[in-house]
Amino acid sequence: MFGTQFITAQTNSLTGSPYSLFGLGVQTNANIGRNSALGKGGIALESDHLINTLNPASFTGISNKSFLLDIGFLGEFNKVSTDDKNEKRFSANFSNLAIAFSLNEKSGMGLSMVPFTDVGYALIGIETNIEGSQDKFISNIIGSGGLNDLSIHYGYKLYDNLSLGMKGSFLFGAIDQTENIIFDETFLNITEESFYNGFRLGLGLQYQIDNQYTVGFTTDFPTSLQGSQDRRVFKSLDFIPTDVEDENDLEIDSFKLPLELGFGAKATFFNSLIVNLDYKGNLWGFTDQSDDIGDYVDQSIFSFGAQYKVKELGLKYWQNIEFRAGFNYDSGYLKVNDKAIDSYSLTAGFGIPISIRRGSMINISYTTGQRGNVSGILVEENFNMINVNISLKDIWFRKLKFN
Questions:
Q1: 123, 192, 381, 398: which has the highest count of C-beta atoms within 10 A?
Q2: What is the pLDDT of residues 203-242, one digit of tens each?
Q3: Structure letter (DSSP) for residue 28
Q4: DSSP character for 375?
Q5: Are 324 and 34 in contact (CB under 8 A)?
Q6: How far apart are CA 108 and CA 67, in angstroms?
């Protein structure tokens, strides 16, 4: 499928995955706060001193008169292998911005801007036979861009142990693809920029069974993203340039997002060890859509994470460092040659306190994993990522008292 000469490259996108060629790109690896190191999970985790956008109900955990800010950066190194070729690619960029604050003792809300999908692929030196001839032409295809998720989150504490949440998202962005075709002294350039946008609604719930156990539930409702495209075709024959096509706002098919259901559980042991377990099911099969090269299938995502901290509020600095680790398995939502493109990853990281009393932290996580395999779909991708999040917490409207 990817019978091509691979190159080494660096991009300013958030991925270098060849699988971002399909659909709207690969689902983002960017996460807020501690979630990256916990196997990308945390549906049942609260937003006490770190923002948790995986469940809008968690925003009720923000202490009264508190303000939270999270800024993230992501670096990704990919190695892609076929039977006889390899590609290495590095990408890095700003990954997220989020704020959250309490409204009163029963409710909290926040705003977040994170990538929704990432696109960053380069297929270089693709040889194709000209129909009815032994001659071949060479194509180079480069893609970039992706969609963004601008969301508002609101949580309300219905009872002391039950919180409900709502999330409204505006998804928008552009995907660029440039194809250069070379044959003898003929050069053809095809540039397509596809735009998508749409709104999506989500709900969340968190229920604290007791001081040790909490469960959570989330749902994101299906929606369609409207699309349009700008297309330009340019050719050069005998070194004479000519515009072949130049059109804007062309209609393209909308892209359907499925119903997504998530379940999570959290357990606390010895007041120092927190364990979270999540399952998420994305019902792509009901969207009744397919890619040019494969079919969309229902997707299951399992994540497991653990966090250890010596003391809840230690007197020594090292006692307040949070150590984290996790695992994630994604069955994939696209099936090619009757085989789904699945992935797995191992994560590890820690939270370094900036301000012990206020809860501000630098969160660093490392992820290593694999997507696809050589035998099934001819491409195996190994990825390594580093997430860095600066998470700040402050107190609003606090009165200072002097003796």
A1: 381
A2: 999 999 999 999 999 999 999 999 999 999 988 877 777 8
A3: P
A4: H
A5: yes
A6: 10
